């Protein structure tokens, strides 16, 4: 299961509309490693002011890796994280997350990060089974 959904949030979903702030809180509490990593990258992007911030360190264990995969593989979770932080997320392999300013999907740096070439250049035998 991806998220530990509180009964009240589940009731909202069953009734129709869901409060996105409550959904984001559910993500934060259910996927703390993924949340903390993305939040750290957002801060780095803001402080450094560059084109993007990324993580090249694999997660410390399988639980953390699973959280990151669940957060970024779900369109709903990824979209909520992007809207909450005002960024665009990109993902390579099982660990490399790129955080870009929102609206920069057409920049050369974003296109390079998300390209086939970028994916191939980011491969490593150490990450074969990630």
What would your notes on this structure say?
By secondary structure, the chain is mainly alpha-helical. The protein has one domain (31-127). The protein is built from seven helices and three strands. Strands 1-3-2 form a three-stranded antiparallel β-sheet. Helix 2 crosses helix 3 (32-48), helix 2 packs across helix 5 (75-85) and helix 3 packs across helix 4 (62-73). It is globular, with a radius of gyration of 15 Å. The mean pLDDT is 88.
In a nutshell, what does this entry contain?
The chain has 130 residues and is mainly alpha-helical. It has helices spanning 7-15, 20-30, 32-48, 62-73, 75-85, 108-113, 116-121; strands at 53-54, 87-92, 96-101.
Secondary structure topology:
Elements: H1 7-15, H2 20-30, H3 32-48, E1 53-54, H4 62-73, H5 75-85, E2 87-92, E3 96-101, H6 108-113, H7 116-121
Antiparallel strand pairs: 1-3, 2-3
Main sheet characteristics: 3 strands, antiparallel
Helix proportion of residues, in percent? 55-70%
The general outline is: globular
- Radius of gyration from the alpha-carbon trace, in angstroms: 15 Å
Helix and strand string, N-terminal first? HHHEHHEEHH
* Structure class: mainly alpha
Model regions low in confidence, pLDDT < 50 over at least 5 residues: none
- Kindly report the spatial arrangement of strands forming the biggest sheet: 1-3-2
Alpha plus pi helix count: 7
Number of spatially distinct domains: 1
Portion of residues in beta strands equals: 5-15%
Query: How many β strands by DSSP?
Result: 3
Mean pLDDT score: 88
Termini separation (Å)? 19 Å
Organism: Streptodolium elevatio
Pfam families: KH_NucS_shadow (PF20704)
Protein name: SCO5389 family protein
């Amino acid at each position: 299961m991806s998220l530990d959904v509180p009964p009240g949030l589940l009731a909202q979903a069953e009734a129709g509309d869901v409060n996105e702030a409550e959904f984001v809180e559910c993500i934060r509490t259910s996927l703390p490693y993924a949340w903390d990593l993305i939040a750290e990258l957002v801060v780095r992007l803001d402080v450094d002011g560059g084109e993007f911030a990324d993580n090249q360190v694999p997660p410390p264990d399988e639980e953390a890796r699973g959280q990151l995969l669940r957060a970024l593989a779900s369109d709903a979770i990824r979209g909520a994280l992007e809207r909450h932080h005002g960024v665009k997320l990109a993902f390579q392999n099982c660990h490399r997350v790129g955080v870009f300013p929102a609206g920069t999907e057409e920049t050369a740096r974003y296109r390079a990060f998300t390209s086939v070439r970028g994916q191939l250049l980011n491969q490593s035998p150490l990450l074969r089974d990630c």
